[in-house]
Amino acid sequence: MAIVVDIENTSESDEVPPSSLMRRWISAALTPHLKDAELCVRIVDDGEMIDLNGRFRNKPYATNVLSFPADLPDVVDIPLLGDIAICAAVVNREAREQHKTSEAHWAHMLVHGCLHLLGYDHQNDSDAEEMEAMEAALLASLGFPDPYQNAVPANGSTRVQLK
């Protein structure tokens, strides 16, 4: 088998990267960890992301990316990794605000979402540093700059916060 990615674009944005690029970025993030995986990426607009973020995180606003790891019983032998929801409007706005190319930020958000599906998080500083280092290395392997270097934080802190 391989890394199988189903991409559902329900967004009205015309600033969504081609599916072939998104699959490449996702494969780069997952291949060091898994030989076989299946996941779905759903590209949504603000309204759907507000609903998802409200229902699953009790945060009533649109965020950039959410990951939903599959929770299958051990007896089910399929490589279903989970789902990623990504809000096109938020990602494109953040790219502009952070002075990044749209492609670089999309790649970052998809890599970030994949690492969450693999069990990584950023709930404390040490976990955040580990995850950010992995993201930077993966993005560098894809030809993108470190997303945490020279980034413009939205909240005035020295660290870019991913919602």
Could you give the topology of this structure?
Elements: E1 3-9, H1 19-30, E2 37-44, H2 46-57, E3 65-69, E4 80-87, H3 88-97, H4 102-117, H5 125-141
Parallel strand pairs: 1-2, 2-4
Antiparallel strand pairs: 3-4
Helix pairs in contact: 1-4, 3-4, 4-5
> How many structural domains are formed by the residues?
1
Radius of gyration: 15 Å
By DSSP, the count of extended strands is 4
Label the structural class.
Answer: alpha/beta
> Would you identify the CATH H-level superfamily?
Metalloproteases ("zincins"), catalytic domain
Core attributes:
single chain, alpha/beta, Collagenase (Catalytic Domain), four-stranded mixed β-sheet
Structure description:
The chain is of the alpha/beta class. The chain has helices spanning 19-30, 46-57, 88-97, 102-117, 125-141, and strands at residues 3-9, 37-44, 65-69, 80-87. Helix 1 (19-30) links the parallel strand 1 (3-9) and strand 2 (37-44). The longest helix is centred in the last third of the chain and has 17 residues, at 125-141.
Provide a compact summary of the structure:
The protein is α/β, with parallel strands linked by helices and 163 residues long.
